[in-house]
Amino acid sequence: LPTGTTSAHQNFGDKNILEEIELNGVISIPQNSFQEYKKLTNVILPSSLTTLGGGAFFNCSELSIDASTLPKSITSIAYGCFYKTKLYGEIDLPNLSGTVAYGTFNGTQISKIKSLGTVSSFGTAGASMGYPFQDCTALTEISQSVWDNIISYDNSFQGCTSLYIDEFRVPNLEKINPLGGGPRIRSIRDL
What predicted TM-score, i.e. pTM, was given to this entire model? Predict the structure, then answer.
């Protein structure tokens, strides 16, 4: 692809054959670019990448990506981007902003959320994609710095059965109920 551009998903080849993609110089991957590419197993994302459109890798069930290799340059990830992929490991996206939308990481195998930049809210459930981190059963840790920025979340961690929060510090106790089933909290402290 030409540097700084992407193409519509139908230009990427047969979704039933394509197994690997290297996206050198790309700054944006548009909505649904690789949606349901069932044979896709590997994607190399460039350090120039800033935007991942809604459903960019939606339901690419064989796609395995180490979350620590996601470019730190990413500022925006839209709804359902990594829905039901094999994204795993630690998320560290210090330049991310806005909202982590519905279904973004639903069903992935991420284990830790180290940084989400200045993200201030987690979106609600949307259509059939569920909540942003729903059913991330390998998720065990979320850095306090992530919680410190969050103003709004709605059942975002439903089904995260391995998530154990030793001390949940929140500026407003009204936020507790919307965590959803899954996370276990030992103590809650109002800031």
Answer: 0.85
